[in-house]
Amino acid sequence: MRTQVAIVGAGPSGLLLAHLLHLQGIESVVLERQSREYVEHRVRAGVLEQGTVDTLRAAGLADRLLREGLVHHGIELRFTRHAHRIALSELSGGRSITIYGQQELVKDLVRARLETGRALYFQVADLSLDQVAGPEPVLRFRHGDRAVELHCDFVAGCDGFHGVCRKSIPASEQQVFHYDYPYAWVGVLAAVAPSTDEVIYAHHEDGLAMHSLRSPELSRLYLQCSPHDVIAHWSDDRIWSELHRRLATDDGWVLQEGPILEKSITAMRSFVVEPMQYGRLFLAGDSAHIVPPTGAKGLNLAVSDVRALADALSEWFVHGRDELLAQYSATCLQRVWRAQHFSAWMTQMLHRAPDDSTGFMHRLQVSHLRYIAQSRAAATSLAENYVGYDLA
Ligand code: RFL
Ligand code: PHB
After folding, report:
1. Which end of the chain lies in a sparser environment, N or C, as judged by fewer CB atoms within 10 Å?
2. Within 10 A of 145 (CB to CB), how many other CB atoms are there?
3. Taking the complete model, does pTM exceed 0.85, yes or no?
């Protein structure tokens, strides 16, 4: 088999790249380890920056997102039992965010890919990369009982943090930067009308709590837990009682409970590999970088990587020029590091540090939160990063 671009991974980055290339008449094959059912039901991100929505709309992929997504103009910071609204749009020149579940976006992208009639293989096994440093990389994998060899001009590594693409780059050719946080999140999807109109980030001495939403009937909630915790320790009753406690305010706000449909624990880490390229292999999305979810940046970074990669590949295939490909990694890393800083900042401001035995860090956090709630300059900094900030 031969194609122009072999795309490993059918998450948001792989599927969106495939579509953007298709719009430029560039051929690709998408290879995914999991089943369609699995990728369409993986509950993850929910906050899309306006730039992400604009990219999807320009690619003709946003019909359902524009119908069903919830446009938000603010978020709430909750601390010392009081609520403080950050007016994102007012503070960022009118930009907004849209709440739309990642699994819904993946369903839209899978459908769009299948409608183009181009190749998308699920349940691909034992994928390996060869000769990516040269002009004709080769991918080998099994699909059903067939052993396949796929030749291509370029490989797009869109296979997430645990994928094979990044691991195919020789260690001497990459530099890794990472930080593991001493906490994790219990994430919950509940069949109950959200008790809030905007995403709430709550700071509490027992750890962060968050209230997000998915639709008028579905709430998404998170609780800080230990990175060594297991979900079996979190009964539904314990989850609700922790959420009530950590989200409580003095003004009588009430959290509505409902059946829990899904719950899991997510580790929190920051990770970047540089450069995001090796020969003809280009990494995009979580395969190249991970942010802790507190800043809601992961999916948005994946989309901006892929937009840059699609432009660079188009310039190569359509105009025969390689300037944008040569700049791809440096271009993406500007935005990646801004998002890394913002995500680490939000994370460290809102979580209880396990080694904070005297409560010193806790007091610093409260002071910082008060400053953001009072100072327009501080709130503006949060807002412009939250809605997506481009370092020129
Ligand atoms: P994905 O989504 O991990 O997709 C990678 C795909 O590659 C496949 N794969 C392979 N395929 C073939 N062969 C192999 N050897 C393969 N190995 C892996 C995998 O099966 C998978 O289908 O990466 P992608 O496309 O780069 O997308 C990144 C996003 O998924 C991620 O950044 C976000 O979910 C992060 N994130 C959030 N981002 C936001 O922008 N806003 C948010 O509000 C937000 N909240 C979150 C989040 C992530 C979370 N978790 C669970 C990590 C909340 C949570 C709880
Ligand atoms: C979500 O809705 O899943 C969500 C919202 C904000 C975050 C992380 C996740 O920072």
Report:
1. C
2. 5
3. yes
Pairing of strands 260-274, 175-190: antiparallel
38 is catalytic: no
Pocket of ligand 1 (CB under 6 A): 8-14, 31-34, 39, 44-47, 102, 124, 127, 158-160, 163-164, 187, 266, 285-286, 293, 296-300, 302
- Domain 181-267+354-386 belongs in CATH node 3.40.50.2300: no
- What are the pLDDT digits (tens) for 260-302? 999 999 999 999 999 999 999 999 999 999 999 999 999 999 9
Contact (CB, 8 A) for 246 and 204: yes
Residue type at position 87: A
Looking at ligand 1, which residue's alpha carbon is closest to its atom 3? 160
The residue extents of the domains of the chain are 5-71+98-177+269-346, 181-267+354-386
Q: How many A from CA of 126 to the centre of ligand 1?
A: 20
The candidate with the shortest Cα–Cα distance to 284, out of 325, 250, 321, is 325
Beta-carbon contacts of residue 181 (< 8 Å; ≥ 6 apart): 227, 268, 269, 270, 292, 347, 351
pLDDT digits (tens, 9 = 90+) for 231-256: 999 999 999 999 999 999 999 999 99
For 245, which DSSP code? H
CA of 253 to the centre of ligand 1 (A): 34
**What does pLDDT average to over the chain?**
97
Q: Output the ligand 2 site: residues, CB below 6 A.
A: 45-47, 199, 212, 220, 293-294, 296
82 is catalytic: no
CATH of domain 5-71+98-177+269-346: 3.50.50.60
